[in-house]
Amino acid sequence: MGKNDTTEQEQDSFANANGEDIVDISGDSASLNAEDETSEPVAEESEKDPMELLQDELKTKDDEIIELKHEFLLHKAETENFKKRLRKEKEDFSQYANEKILKELIEINDNLERAFSATNPTVASMKEGVEMILKQFHSLMEKQNVEIIEALGKKFDPAIHEVLSQMESDEHEENTVTQEFSKGYQLNGRILRPSKVVIAKAPTKQKPEDSDEDKSSQGEPPSSE
Asked: Which residues span the domain enclosing 190?
């Protein structure tokens, strides 16, 4: 019996003594080496070409640009439609802004026509009708925040009064409004029309006549009575 046979027998007896089988790892080592050799080409094949990666990125960016362009055109169309609606509303407002006040003016016109179409009107009835129409007109102005500018007896104010003439007066202070030719009106503090007025000014002082003594001192003959 040779030396190798003795070694194999010793291994068998050792395995039998421990109740285990001896695993031959020589074949496994060879298979692991084969896997390592074949795995390297697979990793190389999985890597993409840089140009292909760049093309993929460009395609993604192109898709994003197309989507953004679509959103831009959509918002642009909405903006144009909004401008058209706003322009239309502005035109309608300018055309019909006075609709409410015109309706009330039509009613005043109706009352005027009734007054003139009355048969055999008396002076008293005509006056009463005109007064009613005037009250109706003043009510309309109040609704529109139109106010009458007070002028008579007030101090002249160039912002709200227009002077037509001046009149000497001993009864009024200078620059006081003494007459009013036409009333002034203002809308929410803005002047629609100034009051056209006459204001007072100080009377011109007359020079006193020279006495006879003054005339004689100046070499002038005294006045004969």
From this structure: 147-204
